[in-house]
Amino acid sequence: MKATRLNIPDVVVLEPKVFGDERGFFMESFNQATFAQLTGVALPFVQDNHSKSVKGVLRGLHYQIQQAQGKLVRVVSGEIFDVAVDIRKSSPTFGQWVAETLSADNKKQLWVPAGFAHGFVVTSPTAEVLYKTTDYYAPAHERAIIWDDKDLNIPWPIDGEPALSGKDKQAPAFKAAEVFP
């Protein structure tokens, strides 16, 4: 597996070795020892999530202010533009974001550590996204930042308005969001 640290070094793109032939392919999508070696993170994963969305659906920018979750994100069908925003006030990259295109074709995975807001938009007709988390979903601690925040200025690859949940439509701006110390 190959690891590439992004402009925010805590966020890592992982690319598995894929062995393919005319029958299809095989890859090891996760190995705890390899993950720890490549990222420096030895946390256990406690929950796996799976979502399916249609083109133009934007999910995020989500985080949990308590029971913060690290997320290992991958796409098994379709393509997404995946974003991680550093919301750790003590971090030198506070308020900065990185993004990566994840797809079933490129098989890349994105490690988004706890302390980051995370979101994605579907850029293919449909997409199925799998992600492992380092803590359990805790609705009482769930928070969000509005997707089109002017200070973050994320260039989402969409035409017009995305399809959002009611909760995501009501998310506060970055400056008003509850963040990590």
Task: Look at the helices and sheets and give the structural class.
Answer: mainly beta
Secondary structure: number of strands: 13
CATH topology: Jelly Rolls
CATH architecture: Sandwich
- Output the number of helix runs: 2
Rg, Cα atoms, Å? 16 Å
Could you state the order of secondary-structure elements as H and E?
A: EEEEHEEEEEEEEEH
Mean pLDDT: 97
Please indicate the count of domains. Answer: 1
Output the CATH homologous superfamily.
Jelly Rolls
Question: How is the topology of this model organized?
Answer:
Elements: E1 2-5, E2 12-15, E3 18-21, E4 24-27, H1 32-39, E5 47-54, E6 58-64, E7 71-77, E8 79-86, E9 97-103, E10 109-112, E11 116-122, E12 126-133, E13 142-144, H2 166-169
Antiparallel strand pairs: 1-2, 2-10, 3-4, 5-12, 6-11, 6-13, 7-10, 7-12, 8-9, 8-11
Notes on the protein architecture:
This protein is mainly beta and 181 residues long. It has helices spanning 32-39, 166-169, and strands at residues 2-5, 12-15, 18-21, 24-27, 47-54, 58-64, 71-77, 79-86, 97-103, 109-112, 116-122, 126-133, 142-144. It is built from two helices and 13 strands; from the N terminus they run E-E-E-E-H-E-E-E-E-E-E-E-E-E-H. It has one domain: Jelly Rolls. The strands form three sheets. A six-stranded antiparallel beta sheet has the order 1-2-10-7-12-5, with no helix packed on it. Strands 9-8-11-6-13 form a five-stranded antiparallel beta sheet, with no helix packed on it. A two-stranded antiparallel ribbon has the order 3-4. The model has no long low-confidence stretch (mean pLDDT 97).
